[in-house]
Amino acid sequence: MPGRLALLTVFIACSLAGRAQDNEIPPPCPFVFTMHKRGESQAIRYAASHPLDKLDTAITTLLIYIHGTKRDALGYCGYAEHMAKSARRKKQTLVISPQYSNAGDLDHYKLANDFLYWKKAAWKDGYTSTTEAGRPQHIGMSSFEVMDSLVNFVLTSNHFPNIKMVVISGHSAGGQFVQRYSATTPIPDLLTGYRFRFIVINPAFYMYPDDKRPIGKLTWSVPDITACPTYNNYPRGLINLNTYAKATGAARILDNMVHRDIVFLLGEDDTREEELDVSCGANLQGPERLDRGANYITYIMSFPGYIYKKNYDIVTGSGHNPDKMINSSEAKKWVFGK
Fold it and tell me: What domains can be seen in the chain, in order of their start residue?
């Protein structure tokens, strides 16, 4: 684990991260989380508001904020840390932002071959990390498996004995990650002494529970799929699940979608085509993010047994902005409220 100097660096960087300009290579997170699978070591970088290797009895909430396609975990750490501070819950909140890298990131920062990486944004759907000739990986891990390991470590390390609430949130591609992860991870069923809440923020599209899609106002039906035969394949549906999701199974995934505490936050002004997925499968869900979100929320809440029918908010004055969304009064309510 990093020493005191590295820890000070991440706190300063998190507080200033929102001022940084977007670059193809994101700022590297200073902390390293190491896992072990089949006798091999795997690692990712992450940012955090508190050291993970020291006892802190003041922490009661674990808040994880997943970055978007630009992989700016350091910036997301700063946004979430500012939110906790403005809510007067900084001392009680452990903020973590893991960084899901690609090969170019690791090459740029000259990191060793035990660091996991994914092609493009395959991490957002729980796919297994990749391997290439220049960066061989003996054992890959699903990005969801990495999250399972991170959450399990924090909650079972005895370093934070008073954590009661676990909030896993993500914006944009991170919102896609959280929507899929919330329905496929076994962690809430294994660590039953904690309350888990998942906050899905402004994703480009959703994983649907069946083969129906919106065809009009408050109307869902199986669409004409002549030009889009794979529209219901994972991650847009529950057909052809990847390795991680297949281990959970479609029936259990649907049950989790209906019964887990999953919150949806949509930006009122998230109606532009800013890096929007316009594939045929995504377009069948609606023309833009706000509309797609409203369609999905209305549909999933219609399923029998759905018990969280008030788990959504539209954030006024915000578009596709990870800072404004997590720092909204609505987000604070869902992170720190009931």
Answer: 4-336 (3.40.50.1820)
DSSP string, 145-172: HHHHHHHHHHHHSSSSTT--EEEEEEET
Give this prediction's pTM: 0.93
Sequential pLDDT tens for the chain (338 residues): 333 223 333 344 464 444 333 348 999 999 999 999 988 899 999 999 999 999 999 999 999 999 999 999 999 999 999 999 999 999 999 999 999 999 999 999 999 999 999 999 999 999 999 998 889 888 899 999 999 999 999 999 999 999 999 999 999 999 999 999 999 999 999 999 999 999 999 999 999 999 999 998 889 999 999 999 999 999 999 999 999 999 999 999 999 999 999 999 999 999 987 789 999 999 999 999 999 999 999 999 999 999 999 999 999 999 999 999 999 999 999 999 86
Q: Give the start-end residues of each E strand in the chain.
A: 31-37, 40-48, 61-66, 93-99, 165-171, 195-201, 213-216, 219-221, 262-267, 312-315
